[in-house]
Amino acid sequence: MTTGTAMDFERYEDQDGVRLAWNVFPNKRIEASRCVVPVSTLYTVLKEQVEQAPVVYDPVLCRCNAVLNPYCQIDIRAKLWICPFCLQRNQFPPHYRDISPSNLPPELMTNYTTIEYILKRGAVSLPPIFL
Fold it and tell me: What is the DSSP letter of 89?
């Protein structure tokens, strides 16, 4: 596969404990249908993030339940972000009203590819689930 967006996956494995089966994602549905090996991820669970403090708010979700991340397209003037999975346009929540190129939330910074959230709502007391 020769098209798509190339990313530095070795850096993400060292930084976040994530290893992907591909180094380029398909950009078109026809390219995705031709993939023999599925797009998949190996994730090192509970990897310590020593340089990043947890954020104290709920994650910003798309209608498809994907989370706002550095690979989303954003329109700062319109206060919109586009989900890279379903291409749905989403409004930023009210607490992002001061967003600007020089004042980005942690979810949109490339060095914050893994974020720990401290949820405002009561968390369900369940043990961790590993797949």
Answer: E
